[in-house]
């Protein structure tokens, strides 16, 4: 069992940040996040999440026109913005990632299986994106996950010529506590859960 302080870092005291302190995020930290995320479970080890780390001024300017107005300032000032995507053709890697059943990719290929492949990619990449935020918090970074962007434009600008689509964005850095919103309530167990 991990200590209470770790649970605070990962969940109870963690916040979605909207403003950032002028502290850098290193490439080594971004690699560390991936090196943790890759061990999180996905169905048949399919690992469909793909990430573009936007951390240059040029990259931010490509990103700027694709953001909804409320997301521009917090993204332009973030040290890094992770574009979290999902590879709709993830199954091409299954012979390597799931070697004890090399034919597993056949479960996802062909026009009649396209919807199944898409659901699998989105579901498992979303799991990995959650692991991504927990990993970032675990190594001392703050996260600012966001919807509110032109998805088609994002795909065209950052994933052009690939089978990857954008899931959501997550700013990374050291959050400015002065720019946090008040903590919002959460559903109680009785409201969100039941036994069967």
From TrEMBL:
Pfam families: Nitroreductase. Its cofactor is FMN. It is an enzyme of class 1 (oxidoreductase). The keyword ATP-binding does not apply. GO terms for molecular function: oxidoreductase activity. Residues 13-158 form the Nitroreductase domain. Belongs to the nitroreductase family. HadB/RutE subfamily. This is Putative NADH dehydrogenase/NAD(P)H nitroreductase D3H34_28650. The lineage of its organism: Bacteria, Pseudomonadati, Pseudomonadota, Betaproteobacteria, Burkholderiales.
